[in-house]
Amino acid sequence: MSDLQELKIGSTRIVALKDGELSIPKEILLNLDEDTSNRITEENNQLTLNNVNAYLIFKDDKILLVDAGCRDLFGPTCGFVHNEIKKANVKPEDITDIFFTHLHPDHVAGAIDKDGKSMFPNAIVKVIEDEFNFWNRDDFDDVEINGKNFADLNKAVIKAYGDRVKTLSNSQEIISGVYPVPLPGHTPGHCGFRIDDNNNNFIQMGDVLHAPNLQLANPDISVIFDVDIENGLKSRKKAFDMVCNDRIICSGGHMLEPKFGYLDKYGNGYKFVPV
C-alpha cells in the first residue's frame, strides 16, 4: 500500500512526493534570536528539519510534475523523487508537463541524469520568464551562494529539454486550472502555484518556508539562499497571510509531514493545522 499523501481539489488530484529530508545548519538561517539559536544543536536538529518535496498534479489528460528533487546532490537522505513517482503508478514517459517553482538545485537536478540526459522524455518544461532569464546569464561568480554552479546546472537542464522548454508570464496557466503564484525574493522568478477547481482552492507556497518548525512561529527568520532577503521576507508574510485569511489548504516545497493543511494565526506567527 502506498504511503503517498494525496489531496483532491474539485476534480484535480494532488500527490505529494517526498524527495528526502535534511537538517539545515543554523549558519544558513538569518534573524535568529539568541534563545532559538542556543536551542539548535547537532543533537537537537528537529527545529531545522526540512523536507524536499515535489508534486504530481492530475487534471484531465495532463500529469504535471512540480519540481523534480535534488537527485544525488545532497547526500543519501535525498534523491528519492523517482521512486515516489513510481509509487504513484506513473512512468517518466507519462508526465506531460514539468513546472519549476524556481531553479535551485533541489528543485531541478532530478530532471536530468548524471550524464545530462532528460529523465522525462515527453514532458514540456515550464518556468517563469524572469526566473529563466536570471539564471541564463554568463556573469555568475564562482563564490556567490546563488552562483555559477547553480547556473551551470540550470543550463544543463535547459539543454537536455531543448525546444520542450517554455517560459511563462506570472499570469499564464501552467495547465488548466493551475496558476503561478508570484513570490519573488528567494529568487527573482520564484513562485508557488494555485489550483482553482469548482470553487475549491489550494496553494503551494514554493520555498517561502525552509525550516517550518522555526519560520511558522517567526516569519522574520530567513535563509542565506534568498537572492533578495527583504523581498523574500515580504513574500513569506504575503503567502502566510493569504492562505490564513482566505482559509486555503496549503503546502510548500519544504513542508514537513503531513504535507497538506491550513495556517492559523498563533501569537506573532502561525501554526500548521493538518487537513
Can you give a write-up of this model?
With 275 residues, the chain is of the alpha/beta class. It has one domain: Ribonuclease Z/Hydroxyacylglutathione hydrolase-like (Metallo-beta-lactamase, Chain A), CATH 3.60.15. It is 21% helix and 29% strand. The protein has seven helices and 15 strands. The protein has helices spanning 34-39, 81-87, 105-108, 129-135, 148-161, 212-215, 229-245, and strands spanning 5-9, 12-23, 29-30, 49-59, 62-66, 97-99, 124-128, 165-168, 178-182, 191-197, 200-204, 222-223, 249-251, 261-266, 269-274. A seven-stranded mixed β-sheet has the order 1-2-4-5-6-7-8. It has a four-stranded mixed β-sheet with strand order 9-10-11-13, with no helix packed on it. Strands 3-12 form a two-stranded antiparallel ribbon. The two termini are 21 Å apart.
